[in-house]
From TrEMBL:
This is Protease Do-like PDZ domain-containing protein. The keyword Hydrolase applies. It comes from Gossypium schwendimanii (Cotton). One of its GO terms (molecular function) is serine-type endopeptidase activity. The keyword Protease applies. One of its GO terms (biological process) is proteolysis. Belongs to the peptidase S1C family. Residues 238-383 form the Protease Do-like PDZ domain.
Length: 386
C-alpha cells in the first residue's frame, strides 16, 4: 500500500472507480508505459476468457481475465478500463510463446478488492487462503464406482493433505469432496459461476480470508461427513518470496549453507530455472509439502576455496540431510548443531549419498581466515544471530 506524505498531492485528483467483473467479449483498454517511453500508451481489446490462472509472481492460482489487448513489459501495474471508464483490473503478465499472439492477463477487481479489504481488516496483507489438499478429477465412471459414489453424487478425490494445514486433522487421502460452503463440486472440480459459466472450486476458497471457517462435505467409505474447517494461507517448502528480507546463510570451513527459495533458484539458474535447476530441487518445488511449520530446504550453496575443504569443491546446491546422524530441519538448527558440536568430526550427509567430513576444531578455527580472505563480514546472517 503506497501513499504520499504531502496531502496537497491529492488536490484536484479524481480517483479511479472500480467496475464490476466484465463479461466475455466486453471491450477493455489497457493503459501504461510498455517498453519504457515518456508518453502514455493505450491498447484495446476484448475479454477472451475468465478462469482460474496461475499467478507467476505469487506462485498461486486466482481468478484472472485473459484479454487480447497487447501487454508488454512496462504495462504491469497499469489499469485496464471498460467502456464506461471504470477500472476492471490491473495488467500483470502475458504469455510469450511462438504459437501464441496477444494473450495478456489482468488481475480482476474481485481479487484487488479482496487485497484492499484484507489490508483494512488486518492492517497487514495476510494473503489468500487455500484448502490444503491436492485433488484428482472423478470424471471416470469406473473410478467413481470404485470409490463408492452413487450415480447422483459428484465431487473430487483428495490425493494428499498438507500435514501443516488445519484440515489435516479431519480430511484424509481418498476422501471425496462433494461440496464447499454448500456449493456442489462437479467431477471436474468446477462450480457454477455467473450465468451458464463454470469455474474451478478454488475460486470459492479464494473469496475467503485467512482465519475464516468453511463447511466441507465429504464422502468417506460411502458415508457422508460434514466438517467445519478454519482456512489459512499456504506455506511452501520452497517459498515464492523472501518478503523483502536478505537471504539467510551460515558458513563453516568455507561451506556456504543457505535455504532454497524461488528468488534463490532464479539468481542461480536465471529466468529459466524451471528447466535449468537440478531435478531434485525442482521436484521439491513442485510436489513437496512441509512436514512441520519450521521446515526449510537447506543446501550447500557453494564451497569457498581453502585447504581445509580440498576435494569438496564440486559440491553445489546439494541438499543437507543430516549432521552427525541428526536430521537437519532448518538452517537455524544446522547452525546451532555445528556451533555446539563437541564431537571430533562434523559429518554432513548430503543428497545423492554424498558425505562431507571435517575435523570440528580445525573447521571452526579455519572459518575466520576464510571469511577474511573472501571479504565476508560474518559467518552467519543477521536473522540467525537473533
Amino acid at each position: 500500500m503506497l501513499t504520499v506524505n504531502d496531502d496537497e498531492f491529492w488536490e484536484g485528483v479524481s480517483p479511479v472507480e472500480f467496475g464490476e467483473l466484465p463479461a466475455l467479449q466486453d471491450a477493455v483498454t489497457v493503459v501504461g508505459y510498455p517498453i519504457g517511453g515518456d508518453t502514455i500508451s493505450v491498447t484495446s481489446g476484448v475479454v477472451s476468457r475468465i478462469e482460474i490462472l496461475s499467478y507467476v509472481h505469487g506462485s498461486t492460482e486466482l481468478l484472472g481475465l485473459q484479454i487480447d489487448a497487447a501487454i508488454n513489459s512496462g504495462n504491469s501495474g497499469g489499469p485496464a478500463f471498460n467502456d464506461k471508464g471504470n477500472c476492471v483490473g490491473i495488467a500483470f503478465q502475458s504469455l510469450k510463446h511462438e504459437d501464441a499472439e496477444n494473450i495478456g492477463y489482468v488481475i480482476p477487481t474481485p481479487v484487488i478488492q479482496h487485497f484492499i479489504q484484507d489490508y483494512e481488516k488486518n492492517e497487514a496483507y495476510t494473503g489468500f487462503p487455500i484448502l490444503g489438499i491436492e485433488w484428482q478429477k472423478m470424471e471416470n465412471p469406473d473410478l467413481r464406482k470404485a470409490m463408492g459414489m452413487k450415480p447422483e453424487q459428484k465431487g473430487v478425490r483428495i490425493r494428499r493433505v498438507d500435514p501443516t494445514a488445519p484440515e489435516s486433522g479431519v480430511l484424509k487421502s481418498s476422501d471425496i469432496v462433494l461440496s464447499f460452503d454448500g456449493v456442489d463440486i462437479a467431477n471436474d472440480g468446477t462450480v457454477p459461476f455467473r450465468h451458464g459459466e463454470r469455474i474451478g472450486f478454488s475460486y470459492l476458497v479464494s473469496q475467503k480470508y485467512a482465519g475464516d471457517s468453511s463447511a466441507i462435505k465429504v464422502l468417506r467409505n460411502s458415508e457422508i461427513l460434514n466438517f467445519n474447517i478454519k482456512l489459512t494461507s499456504h506455506r511452501r517448502l520452497i517459498p515464492a518470496h523472501n518478503k523483502g528480507r536478505p537471504p539467510s546463510y551460515y558458513i563453516i570451513a568455507g561451506f556456504v549453507f543457505t535455504t532454497v527459495s524461488v528468488p534463490y533458484l532464479r539468481s542461480e539458474y536465471g529466468k529459466d530455472y524451471e528447466y535449468e535447476a537440478p531435478v531434485k530441487l525442482l521436484d521439491k518445488l513442485l510436489h513437496s509439502m512441509l512436514q512441520s511449520p519450521d521446515e526449510q530446504l537447506v543446501v550447500v550453496s557453494q564451497v569457498l576455496v581453502s585447504d581445509i575443504n580440498i576435494g569438496y569443491e564440486d559440491i553445489v546446491n546439494t541438499q543437507v540431510l543430516a549432521l552427525n546422524g541428526k536430521p537437519v530441519k532448518n538452517l537455524r538448527r544446522l547452525a546451532e548443531m555445528v556451533e555446539n558440536c563437541d564431537d571430533e568430526f562434523l559429518k554432513f550427509d548430503l543428497e545423492y549419498e554424498q558425505i562431507v567430513v571435517l575435523r570440528t576444531k580445525t573447521a571452526k578455527a579455519a572459518t575466520p581466515d576464510i571469511l577474511a580472505t573472501h571479504c565476508i563480514p560474518s559467518a552467519m546472517s543477521v536473522d540467525l544471530k537473533a
